[in-house]
Each structure stands twice: as structure tokens, then as C-alpha cells.
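task queued by scheduler; priority normal; single chain, no ligands, no partner chains; default sampling; output format set to C-alpha cells
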Amino acid sequence: MPVEKNAGKLSLEQIGLPAETLMGLYTNLLKTRTLDERFRKLFRQGRFAGTYFSAVGQEATTVGPTYGTRDEDIIAPSHREIGAAVTKGIPLINIIAQVYARVNSPDKGKTHPCHYGWRDKGVITPSSTLAGQTVIGTGCAMGFKIQQKDNIVLAFFGEGSTSRGGWHEALNFAGIHKLPIVYICQNNLWAESVPATLQAGIEDFSDRAKAYGFPGITIDGNDIIGVHKTAAKAIARARAGEGPTLIECKTYRWYGHSEIDPADYRSQEEFEEWKEKDPVRRAEELLLDLGILTTYQREALVEQTNQEIDEAVAVCEKEQYAEPEEAYIDVYSEQFPVRRDEY
């Protein structure tokens, strides 16, 4: 990845964040990008089954809001939230085991690839139903309010999810009850192969918040600093009992909806334009200019992440797939009686 000096010559005072936070944000961006690209390579090598949903190009939309949240805070993700999983602290071996559908995965191999979740870090394992996690996250926020806790929920989704009825019901409920939840809309311009212009008759999806009585804001989703600061204000507002916020992050996924999607419905010009707005490179340029990051540090971070990935992949590829009976475990309140001779 070529690195150029940031032309803005911003100071730490102008940015308004300490060097430690900037380095933490960048480290999680780079770790997410490295893991994501490795997954794409592993899929093309036939090393795991199903498909893979890459988030390359829109990492700032998940890393920025999640960085600095507590273990007790809840993440309600969809299928492209690898950055939230990494930043919330789910071990890479857990993430890799989930994609590989092995028994050492937190979900015991039950769910679709990229449904990252781990109870210990408050990350809900998402469903395949669009906006389903938004409803569950809203329920978690209601639970926090009933328990009088100052924990918050971050709910992630694409702009296509805002066409679902459950999504509107969830936001309406949150607005009425002033729930401690921040809704993050990752508007990457395409709901699979459907352009955002055919999803809604509005330019900014954040305008939808007006109907439910809470603030909505549209920001540059590839600016990690702006995303983090905007989300931090919304999180503070939620913790203070002031209710939800809808943040629309304008961003772009570099690849298809999944690895089996050639994305031939988009123009090469559109792709190249957005690739120039790469959130990882933008953050890298800024930190180099500030003297917080060196090229050596960057290479060391990549090497460390690759080594961790290598070790986790080696473990996961030796693990077994779950037995069929596993499908019934952790689903019912009482153990479901199943015998192999019954099927």
C-alpha cells in the first residue's frame, strides 16, 4: 500500500484526540483490513465452505464507533461487521473458527460465515434476516433502561435494511422510550446489486430519524476520526439517558456483496473514485504526518497480525465440524431429545 504524507498538516490539538486513541483506531483498522483480505484469499483457495462477505473499504464505519466501548455494551451486528468484532476484542481464533464453521467457534459451527458473535464481549451473533439485529439490539437497549444501567447498544446495518418493516418498528420504539442505542447506517451505495437510489426517495438516510423523534446525522464514513468522534458524542448522549441517534456513514465496499458476486453492476470509474478514499490509507497518512506512526511500525503490525492469523488458521483447519445434534443445543430451554436413528 503506497503511503503519502497528509497535506492538511493537522495538529493533535486540531484533531482533538490523544495520540494513543489515534494509534488504537489505526491499529484496529489495519488489523481488520489484514484479516479481511486474508479471508478473501482463503476462500479463493477453497479453504472454507459457503461464501464470504468482505468489508474492505468500509472499515472505519465499524472500528470508529466500537473503539472505546465497554465489554458490557452490546454490539448488534450484521454480516459485514468484522471491524466491530476485531475492535470489541473477539479473539482472531474465534472469528476464524466462525468462518470455518468449526466446533471451536463460539456458535459451534451453527451459523453462516461472517456472523461473528461472542457473549463475553457483548457481540450478538447476527441472523441472516436483514435488520433482524436492529430489533434485537433495541430490545437489549430496553433491558438496560429497565435495569437502570448506563450501558449502550450499537446497531449496525446497511442502507438496504432501512426498507424493512422491522427496522422502522425498532427505531420508532427506541424513539418513544428514549433508549440507549446508536444506530449506524453503513450506506455503501449498494444493497447487494440494488443502488441506494432505488432504496429510498431521499438523499440522506439519516433523515429517517426525524420520523421517530431523535437526531440523525450524515457523515463521511471513510474518515475514521470523524466517525469515532461523532459516535462518541452519540454514545455519551445515550449513556446520559437522552435517547437514540441515527448516524449515516457514507462509504463504499470495494468488492461484491459476497465473494461469489462479480459486482458487474457497478462501473469501474465508481470503484476507482472510492478506492482513492481508502479509510486505512487516509488514517495512515495522518499518523505518519503527525509522527505517531512509522513505516516500520506499520510493517510490524501487519507481520504480527499475519502471524496470529497463521496460527489460528492452523488450529481451526485441524478442528472438526459439529455433529448434527449440535443444531439442537443452546436452542431450547431443555435438552431436545434426539437420537441418530431418528433421522
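post-processing summary
- The chain has one domain: 12-342.
- The longest strand covers residues 181-187.
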